[in-house]
Amino acid sequence: MKGDFPTIFERGGNGLSSVELPSCSTPSKDIKKELPETALRKSPPKLPEVPEPELVRHYTALSRRNHGVDNGFYPLGSCTMKYNPKMNEDIAAMDAFSSAHPLAPVEAVQGCLEAMYGLQEAIAGITGMDAVCLQGAAGAHGELTSLMMLKSYLKDIGEESRNRIIVPDSSHGTNPASATLAGFTTVQIKSGIDGKIALAALEAALGDDVAGLMLTNPNTLGIFETEITKIADMVHSHGGLLYYDGANLNAIAGIARPGDMGFDMVHLNLHKTFSTPHGGGGPGSGPVAVKAALEKYLPNPKVVKNSDGSYGFACHEASIGMVKSFWGNFGVMLKALAYIFSLGWEGLEKASETAVLNANYCLEMLKNDYVLPYEGRCMHEFVLSAENLAAYGVRAMDVAKALIDYGIHPPTIYFPLIVKEALMIEPTETESKQTLDGFISAMKQIAKTARENPQALRDAPKTTPVGRLDEVGAARNPVLKSGK
Fold first, then answer.
1. Alpha helix ranges (H) inside 108-227
2. Which end of the chain has fewer surrounding CB within 10 Å, N or C?
3. What is the pLDDT of residues 341-382, one digit of tens each?
């Protein structure tokens, strides 16, 4: 079932040109008179005089030592390292957006609030949910926010004794961590031989003390839980709720909706599914979407559209309170909104289909060179195992390091934990067949090298400024310096 996108920019232009925002200007006061004497320099700083070409070359050389999606393939499984369209960056950098102050009166930032409201409505349509909050700073933050709401909901209905959260053994590590932070006890259930939730194990774990089930669909193995509606019925029949970890929404956006599967609450990773920058510690964004019964618990304040067509904020007394200062990561929201509106529903559907196609192509081409722990088609990502290379003394870590010498970022390794020597690969939808073929060729060559010259893989990488590091030694015997 397809949701409807809001048409929020219909009044000609983008609704922002008429808003006059205060501009930054040089303070009229004498700064020297405002600062204490001890804070003032007695002499100019000793900064080097560097010609512009040398400065540019220095930072360009440093940038070449870093790997990002702009300069190479980045098949990091589960993290969805999508290409970030530069148009979206330009939109987020528009002066009317970037100069807006979060404490400005709502009359002065109507365009910003309209954009946030539009994103809320778009997310509700994509997920099949009824209400959305944009405050979450990242996926795990969205998880914690959802579980805090669940806690409040259970208290209000007199079911505080429900203190167990069920997670599958293939779940993201943040799931049990968030549940613990929210005051729940985590119960892990094993996956079946097909990589999906074992319904018998789920039934055995359910009871009157279960608060809910946290689930990713498709799951972390890249496999779609085809019995999801039955799973939802089982959990609901025992009084629990279903939480959807949106990390893998890139496989189904525009095609299927968590709300239609039976989920009650969802968090999304805007920096995954909706192609905003990802990595380097942020910025991320983890909006939360819920069914109507949970709407009043959403963090305050929420952007609303007033009866006169203007936009403002509203609060509910049952809310769990604010979880992020000001508007949240507003720039990330703008990039996600631009991505959604530029693609439209058909474009989102096509992106998901292509992500699934690319993943299955790579899987089919590599399944004979590595171990495929779970047979069948995958969704947007898949998991291989390097266990067949162990006889040559080669591990998943060696495969990952060797890929660096091919100019390819390593995939996620050793996760999910239920697969030995795991290689978790997600090609995303924007990569060409030429790029995918280059990756496949590199992976095949690495498997061949493992059999013929395994030491070469154990010595990789060779082309980087720093060679193979002793990660275990560094973790066990860290060398800490004061910085003085």
1. 110-127, 139-156, 174-181, 199-205
2. C
3. 999 999 999 999 999 999 999 999 999 999 999 999 999 999
